[in-house]
What we know:
Layout: H1 4-18, E1 22-26, H2 46-52, E2 60-64, E3 69-74, H3 79-85, H4 91-97, E4 102-105, H5 109-114, E5 119-120, H6 127-137, H7 146-157, H8 161-184, H9 191-204, E6 208-209, E7 214-216, E8 236-241, E9 243-244, E10 253-258, H10 265-284, H11 291-309, H12 316-321, H13 349-353, E11 380-383, E12 386-388, H14 391-397, H15 401-406, H16 409-412, E13 420-422, E14 425-429, E15 434-436, H17 445-455
Parallel strand pairs: 1-5, 3-4
Antiparallel strand pairs: 1-2, 2-3, 6-9, 7-8, 8-10, 11-14, 12-13, 14-15
This protein binds glycine and manganese (II) ion.
Amino acid sequence: MFDANTYTQRRQQLKQQLGGGLILLLGNEEASMNYKDNWYPFYQDSTFRYYFGLDLADLTGILDIDRDEVILFGPEQSMDDVIWMGALPSLASLAEQVGVSKVLPTEKIANYIASAKSLHFLPPYRPEHLLKLQAWTGKTVLEPSLPLIQAVVAQRSIKSEEEIQEIERAVNYTARMHRNVMQFAREGMKEHEVASEALRYAESTGNLLSFPIICTTQGQILHNHYRGNTLRQGDMLLLDAGIQTPAGYAGDMTRTFPVGPTFTGRQRELYQVVLETHEAAMAALKPGILYKDVHLLACRKLTDGLKQVGLMRGDTEEAVQAGAHTMFFQCGLGHMMGMDVHDMENLGEQYVGYTPELRKSTEFGLKSLRLGRALESGFVLTVEPGIYIIPELIDMRRNDKVTQQFINFEKLDTYRDFGGIRIEDDLLITENGSRILGEPLDRTLAEVEAIRQQAL
Ligand code: GLY
Ligand code: MN
């Protein structure tokens, strides 16, 4: 948690931005897995945490701009809570830690908001958010506030110095977690044994994971959560994993490395294509550039590389315009990152990654690009190009005339069991360009092979 002033200033900025009305910010409740008292690990709503700091369940914040007051609503602990969960400070002293001087019991919310001239709230993404909003407002159909969404996105998109330090801490831990796994993995292990080393590292350092680990020899499945395969000589292992610090800031990195001491010839060729695409995309980052244009630049670079390998052919620009490269790269180049690994996605991708003038495309490939808009100094984002060879997609597009023009299917058919490669780093947009966050993590062919050779 930051100093109380941080939260006071953040709330002040939001109030000024909205100008009037009542802002209702819902904290999260505990969520039950399979019966009421068996909970998933608690996850606080990130916007509530951004403005109110507290990482505890059942809290609600109100910024009443018209009455010029900020109130934290919540329960006082019962003796049962104390017995099962341990004693906490009173609601008033929790509020004081984040610069709030007025507290009220949750039951008073409905009365308090009844007199508001305009009520601003964010899109509910959990069923209980909707139920609470319906109960408190007495309405069944509820319209989230676009001005509030826009103000929160504008504020949370620009990371402050103390946030950048915290994100960098998360990325440092993330890089160390990856290095550990790169040294730990051995032929004959199951993917879940390798993933457990990442989890052990995260928990042994007092941190959390920022999303469920992707640890797979089947890297072509973009979000593969199956971990039952055995690591074999000749396989590559793709690890996409990130650490979240106790303050709630995320890291998100991916490395792909050989199970043996070296990549095979084919793996080496395609790894180099992804690496050069990753470097070209990172080099293009600067304030003012559309991230969509960085994505398209990456698609062209990837296509050039695939042409050299002999998997694609024809004019690069035309191939990318026709979407032929999506045979290999089906997703977007990256996303915003901060308190959430896909920062603020619950507020709507259109508002976080796009603008009214630049709407998200519905085309295959571009529809999965979560960030398209012009970059600004203070943004934190990922760059994560990849090559994914998906046999089902090859078969689906085999008779597509446009694809036939640009894809060498004869050669591609010999790569059906190749798998996938992704390389991902986290970057801060600076005044003049960008900076990779965190300690350097081995990335080139030589570096990755060296770490494997030393380990084996
Ligand atoms: N690292 C997971 C993702 O970006 O979707
Ligand atoms: Mn990512």
